[in-house]
Specification:
By secondary structure, the protein is α+β, with helices and mostly antiparallel strands. The strands form 8 sheets. Strands 15-19-20-27-24-23-21-22 form an 8-stranded mixed β-sheet.
Length: 663
């Protein structure tokens, strides 16, 4: 008798099908349109090949191009395999390693036989990929034993794959996917065939070096990157964003505006120039006013703390590889002998502020009436990031967090998180970010605390976002399994910039663990000791990274209140030099940040130079303006000039230059 399976569709309807039936069979039974559109299936919540038979009763949802997130991941995974086949066909003897999908495309790491790949190789590889797509080769899934894999890779001279296969667990189901004669180890899933890919919707973008298994002691490989999309329209839009992003690169704009520089003598740390630090100070002053108004108390804590403190907090065991460790001893000053004995106690530069804030909370007896206690710090921290991961001021080793910790009672959690959501919303909008998404990062596999504690913490964060009115699709609400910190779940706030990129900046974490580990307590209404709940929160994340995001979002054209130099007084003729000095003096008295340009250069040259430096306002003065007490105002990006009396111009600019919280 034929075994029958019960398949439940999204509308709740049931279909009884014989063993061996595939999701593609069900799509065909529903209609030819769906059969053509379906590219994969979600079976009991997991994405699978549409040609893979059901294992038993199941919930089924068919995936089409309208399910863009799933469809893009499938397309990019398929393109990675197609690229690997193309490379091995064009460059015989090349070994393959790994090739995952990424957020906007895919890459594959190769061990070339003769020479590293270069970007000159990419057009030929793209052409070969299109030939493979045109052949419409089916993606076929097969289950192999570990020994079969080892034998295959050894026979083919694939030493990297053979090494990896030898480490796979014996009892695990191991799968390969083949397209024609080419195959690779792969968990899948894939689409039906290479022909489902749009040959005009991908582009190979660059080549770089990468170490085998990410270890610099291992062989250097060639990594080829590509971007892949569902159709050419999406690809074109992405390439336009890439071009626009290059124009907005914070490193280039930072140089043009003389904001900062980086150099090898201080890897991962920023040298802020006067203009850049003016920008920093405006942002810091704005954030300080917002925190003061929201009831935060600002503190300052040590940068260097004993390793025993980090052991007690749990960071020493979970985070030590990212910490700068310092021996607590006086170094030897003699020419001979080691500088350090290696016997001193260990200390560490703080990678975060939270344990120090607990130590402040623990000073003196706290009552339930003292809560919530909101401690804020613009704390300088250090993290030992790998050199290869550093990127401008976006990814650094020394950074300043807009950090705060809220110590509260259990019954205050929802309201405190709601207030934080409102504060973050105001700050983002003031800084020019109208759109952001909220994600709830759930418990990771490796974590402290009980299941009941994690259930309670995750539930409180959900309730708080609902109370803030931000749990709907317009806020991109999503839950992220396994993405929480080892001590707490967290809300992540992903803002969208002017060209559609998303950046995770704000966060609030609900922590029951650290107060327990560091013995923080308060006296409750019942006269007994209780543990406070600790909310770790940041809005900007770090000043360095957020300023980089701000530079790229505004393309250096900051609103007047943030601009390091708000105006330049530029002379047309030397007869106006004295008047330019008077204009600048009056602007400074009004609190405006202004420079003057009295160089013996043509005015068009001055306009071009200050436009490149992104100065928002140019006040052009000549002999006539000096005689009449007027200025010609020229805005960045505009050819038009507006003539007005100096007093009126200063009053107008002073009003425009007010920070949003002061208006």
């Amino acid at each position: 008798m034929t075994q029958m399976f019960r398949i439940t569709l999204p509308d709740g309807s049931l279909r009884e099908v014989p063993a061996g039936t595939t999701p593609a069979d069900i799509a065909a039974a529903i209609g030819p349109g769906l059969a053509k559109a379906a590219i994969a299936a979600r079976v009991d919540g997991s994405v699978r090949d549409i040609m893979r038979p059901f294992d038993g009763d199941a919930q089924l949802a068919l995936i089409t191009a309208k399910d863009e997130k799933d469809a893009l991941e499938l397309v990019r995974h398929d393109l990675a395999h197609v690229m690997a086949e193309a490379v091995q066909h064009l460059f015989p003897g090349t070994q393959i390693t790994f090739g995952p999908a990424t957020d906007d495309g895919f890459y594959y790491d190769f061990a070339p036989k003769d020479r590293p790949f270069t970007e000159e190789d990419l057009p030929a590889i793209e052409a070969e990929m299109r030939a493979i797509i045109a052949r419409n080769e089916p993606f076929v899934r097969e289950v192999w034993s570990r020994q079969q894999l080892i034998d295959r890779w050894t026979e083919q001279g694939e030493t990297f794959k053979a090494e990896w296969a030898a480490e796979l667990p014996e009892g695990e189901e191991l799968t390969i996917y083949r397209q024609g004669a080419w195959l690779d180890m792969c968990r899948g899933p894939h689409m039906v065939s290479t022909g489902k890919l749009d040959p005009a919707a991908f582009k190979l973008t660059r080549v770089s070096g990468a170490y085998w298994r990410g270890d610099q002691k291992n062989a250097m490989l060639s990594r080829i990157y590509g971007t892949g999309w569902l159709n050419k329209k999406q690809l074109d839009a992405h390439m336009t964003r890439i071009e626009e992003a290059a124009k907005r690169d914070h490193r280039r704009i930072g140089q043009e505006m003389d904001l900062f520089h980086l150099q090898s003598e201080a890897q991962g740390s920023v040298f802020w120039h006067p203009n850049g630090y003016l920008l920093w100070r405006q942002l810091e002053a704005y954030m300080r006013r917002r925190l003061d108004a929201a009831g935060y108390a600002e503190v300052k804590t040590p940068q260097l703390m004993d390793a025993r403190q980090w052991e007690a907090s749990g960071h020493w065991g979970k985070y030590r590889e990212n910490m700068f460790v310092v021996p607590d001893e006086v170094p030897n000053t003699e020419d001979e002998g080691p500088v350090l004995t290696g016997e001193g106690d260990l200390m560490a530069l703080k990678p975060m502020n939270c344990p120090a804030h607990v130590l402040i909370f623990r000073q003196g007896i706290k009552s339930y009436r003292d809560l919530p206690m909101r401690l804020a710090e613009f704390g300088c921290c250090h993290r030992n990031e790998p050199h290869g991961a550093l990127h401008g001021i976006m990814r650094v080793r020394q950074f300043t967090q807009d950090d705060a910790h809220i110590f509260c009672r259990e019954d205050q959690i929802v309201e405190e998180v709601r207030l934080f959501c409102d504060l973050l919303d105001t700050v983002y909008k003031d800084l020019g970010f109208d759109s952001y998404a909220i994600k709830l990062a759930l418990r990771p596999d490796k974590r402290f605390g009980t299941e009941e504690m994690w259930d309670r913490a995750e539930g409180n964060l959900r309730d708080a976002v609902r109370a803030a009115g931000r749990a709907g699709p317009e806020y991109g609400w999503e839950e992220l399994p396994n993405e929480g910190a080892f001590y707490s779940p967290k809300l992540e706030f992903h803002l969208t910039d002017a060209i559609g990129r998303t950046w995770q900046c704000g966060t609030i974490q609900l922590d029951y663990v650290l107060p327990e580990r560091l013995d923080a307590s308060y006296i409750g209404e019942d006269g007994e000791r209780h543990r406070p709940v600790m909310l770790h929160r940041a809005i900007l994340g770090t000043f360095e990274r957020f300023l980089g995001i701000l530079i790229e979002h505004h393309a250096g054209r900051f609103p007047l209140w943030l601009a390091p130099v708000q105006a330049v007084v530029a002379t047309i003729v030397s007869d106006a030099d004295d008047y330019a000095g008077e204009v600048m003096k009056q602007m400074a008295a009004a609190g405006l940040r202004a420079d003057r340009d009295v160089r013996n250069e043509k005015i068009n040259y001055k306009v071009r130079e200050h436009s490149l430096a992104k100065v928002p306002v140019l006040l052009v003065v000549g002999k006539r303006e000096a005689e009449e007490g007027t200025v010609a105002i020229r805005r960045l990006g505009s050819q038009a000039q507006t003539m007005m009396p100096l007093a009126d111009a200063i009053a107008m600019l002073k009003a425009e230059a007010l920070a949003p919280d002061l208006v």
